[in-house]
Structure formats: structure tokens, C-alpha cells
């Protein structure tokens, strides 16, 4: 399942599931994700299924907005999305999350020598 999360201060404050018709983003109230920001066009961008390929991939497409759409800091017209890509419209930060791309090796949480600080590292298989 793929979702777009609205991020504020590094925390997801809202999640929008991606359906077969995609997700429209803009200032107009008839969009799926309504962004109340004067820098955002009425119809700003759309996250939609990629038109090609066998697997389910997603792309973001700018709808000729005035202030453009940005993915990972680069201005785009159309961009295929990868898990954890940052999409910015106006001052709004969105994050593309795709569970099918997010499968990673198991991580081990380790405590550092600094009180209250933890880190992760790949978990090693138990060796008998």
C-alpha cells in the first residue's frame, strides 16, 4: 500500500492512501489534499500510477503550477517516486511512503554511551 503523508516538523500529521485514480493536491476544496497556502495553485499537482511497467509504481506530476512542485529539493515536471521521497508544494511538505519499497533488513536498536541516545545497525544473524 502506498500513502502520501503530510509532514510538520518531521511528524506525519495526516495520511492519504493512494487509490487507482491517484491523489490531487492543491488549494481548491475539490482536491484530495487541500493545502491552505497562497503559494499553492488551485490545482497544483497529482500523484498518480505510472503509465508504464508491470509493477505498481507512482509518479508525481506538476499541473503547470505557478510555484512548481519539488521532489527531494529538485523542481520537477514529472517524477517517478521512491519510498520516502519528499514532495514540496508551496510551504507544505509531503512524504511518499510505499510499503512494497520499504522492506529493509531487520535493524537492531543499540544504546550509545551518551545518555538517552540510541542508534540502529543491521541485525546480525545468530550464529551457533
Explain the overall architecture.
With 128 residues, the chain is an all-beta fold. It has strands spanning 2-8, 11-17, 23-26, 33-34, 45-49, 58-62, 69-71, 74-76, 78-80, 86-89, 92-98, 107-111, 118-122.
Q: Helix and strand layout, with pairings?
A:
Elements: E1 2-8, E2 11-17, E3 23-26, E4 33-34, E5 45-49, E6 58-62, E7 69-71, E8 74-76, E9 78-80, E10 86-89, E11 92-98, E12 107-111, E13 118-122
Parallel strand pairs: 3-4
Antiparallel strand pairs: 1-2, 1-11, 3-5, 5-6, 6-9, 7-8, 7-10, 10-11, 12-13
Fraction in helix? under 10%
* CA-based gyration radius: 18 Å
Order of helices and strands: EEEEEEEEEEEEE
Low-confidence stretches: none
- Give the helix/strand class: mainly beta
Number of strands: 13
Strand content: over 45%
Give the overall pLDDT as a whole number. 87
3D shape: globular
Give the spatial strand order of the biggest sheet: 2-1-11-10-7-8
The tally of helices reads: 0
Outline of the structure:
The protein is an all-beta fold and 128 residues long. It has strands at residues 2-8, 11-17, 23-26, 33-34, 45-49, 58-62, 69-71, 74-76, 78-80, 86-89, 92-98, 107-111, 118-122. 20% of the residues are buried.
Which properties best describe this structure?
mainly beta; 128 residues; six-stranded antiparallel beta sheet; five-stranded mixed beta sheet
